[in-house]
Amino acid sequence: MGFQLIFAKNLSLDLFVGGGLRSSVIDNKPSELEFYAPDRGYTGIVPKIGFDIGISF
Fold first, then answer.
1. What is the three-class DSSP state of 22?
2. How far apart are CA 25 and CA 42, in angstroms?
3. Cα dist. 13→48, 49, 52 in Å?
4. Is 56 helix (H, G, I), strand (E, B) or coil?
């Protein structure tokens, strides 16, 4: 889900919130991985939030 603001003919700002699916396959997975940690071995839904600034020429 996102929102785009256009400030001028060539300047925009995009705001977004969502999630992504992450899959990891590790042979020797350490037992001390936390469930919500974005470590190398995490598999599941990862929340994402961010913004992009765009300039067109």
1. strand
2. 9
3. 17, 14, 6
4. coil
**Which residues neighbour 40 within 8 Å (Cβ) at sequence distance 6 or greater?**
24, 26
For the whole model, what pTM was predicted? 0.53
Residue 38 neighbours by CB under 8 Å, 6+ apart: 46
Q: Which tens digits make up the pLDDT trace of 40-51?
A: 666 778 888 999
- The answer to whether the beta carbons of residues 51 and 30 sit under 8 Å apart is no
Q: Which residues contact 50 (CB under 8 A, 6 or more apart)?
A: 15, 16
